[in-house]
Design a protein that fits this description.
The protein has about 250 residues and is of the alpha/beta class. The chain is about 35% helix and about 15% strand. Strand 1, helix 1 and strand 2 form a beta-alpha-beta unit. Helix 1 packs across helix 6 and helix 3 packs parallel to helix 4. It comes from Lasiosphaeria hispida.
Length: about 250
């Protein structure tokens, strides 16, 4: 039986990925920040409680919870946090630390520990859920939200470097923009006003695209940054990259 670990499995995209892989008959491990996991998930999901990406021992916590498992076929890290910032109002130190730590620091510690514990082996795949917001090339005007953009750019770099480290071990690392989604996170920062204009999709739709992407993923795409759903929801894609862009779309750093 194939196996997957979803880091950030309790809501949004992570919840949809967890449910879809469980429905496919995979052995699914999902992380939760608290001791209790939410309702509405298949009984087959194995929960790893009290996994906090703000703690320096997060990698060891996950490995300890997986001590009786076989090597994983797939790891998806989709945990994230988004707090808005503007130049006028100024950045918030604590919010920035949380965004950088969750998005780009914790994933390095998690993948490092999984690899050294033998949980990642030849043929394993890692999908790091980033955002087109982390592409420097696609930024063409003032947007604010410094830590949101920069923490995703840092994740892209971390993913690229992890791919180099893991390539000889036969482990694939894919960095992806999953699409603009209709989630409580985007609603919470006021981005629901853009849902229709930029073709936002549900977490289930985005998860289906990521499941299909992971299924066909191989070492030829390791260390690359892709939008499996293409350019439709990326406002600056055509102005920066040109017209008639393909789906899936490889994104610039």
């Amino acid at each position: 039986m194939s196996s997957i670990l979803v880091v950030g499995a309790t809501r949004g995209l992570g919840a949809s990925i967890t449910k879809q892989y469980a429905e496919k008959g995979w052995s699914v491990y999902g992380t939760a920040r608290t001791q209790n996991h939410p309702d509405g998930f298949p009984d087959s999901v194995k929960w790893l409680p009290e996994v906090d990406l703000m703690k320096s021992d997060v990698g060891e916590t996950i490995v300890s919870s997986l001590k009786d498992s076989k090597p994983l076929d797939l790891v998806v890290i989709t945990a994230g946090i988004f707090k808005t910032e503007s130049f006028e109002d100024g950045p918030d130190w604590d919010d920035e630390v949380r965004m950088y730590t969750t998005s780009s620091i914790a994933p390095v510690f998690i993948i490092h520990r999984l690899s050294h514990a033998g949980v990642l082996q030849k043929g394993s795949k890692v999908v790091l859920v980033s955002s087109e917001a982390g592409s420097v090339a696609l930024r063409t005007d003032a947007e604010g939200n410094y830590a949101h953009h920069a923490s995703k750019a840092a994740l892209n770099m971390a993913g690229r470097l992890l791919a180099f480290d893991l390539k000889d071990k036969g482990v694939v690392v894919s960095i992806v923009h999953p699409g603009f989604m209709r989630t409580e996170m985007t609603r919470g920062v006021g981005f629901d006003q853009y849902w229709d204009q930029f073709h936002a999709v549900t977490p289930d739709e985005a998860a289906k695209s990521l499941v299909d992407w992971a299924d066909q993923l191989d070492i030829s795409k390791t260390g690359q940054f892709w939008a499996p759903r293409g350019p439709k929801d990326i406002g600056t894609a055509e102005s920066v990259l040109g017209k008639d862009l393909p789906t899936p779309l490889e994104l610039p750093w």
